[in-house]
Amino acid sequence: MKTETIGTAEFQTWTVEEVAEAWAKNDVVLIDVRTPQEYMFEHVEGALLLPMPFFNAHKLPGQTDKPIIFHCGSGVRSEKVARTAIEAGLDKIAHMEGGFAAWKAAQKPYIGTNMATGAPSHVND
């Protein structure tokens, strides 16, 4: 994990492996900031959807129980959203390096779309 201090806040960049391990243990909240269309096509099972255009850092839940980690397709949007959350006063926030593309490249499990039927299906389970 890479960390960056911004004022009194800590901005974290987690690797796919770190996110996958914490996610498997139910230790983090994973928020997908891609579009609804991207999410519907494929997503990390159980990840919450909060598209970047609708993001409002002041409406995020508290972080007393679980840290929040944002992710997107490549890591660009999630980094912007995480930095916006820090500007809004959250003192510890993270994003996943490389985004969903890195998650897939690491062959982590996710929900994809069966192209023959259009139905959701487990991938890399």
TrEMBL record:
SUPFAM superfamilies: Rhodanese/Cell cycle control phosphatase (SSF52821). PROSITE patterns: RHODANESE_3. Residues 24-112 form the Rhodanese domain. CDD domains: RHOD (cd00158). Gene3D superfamilies: Rhodanese-like domain. Pfam families: Rhodanese. SMART domains: RHOD (SM00450). This is Rhodanese-like domain-containing protein. It comes from Roseovarius gahaiensis.
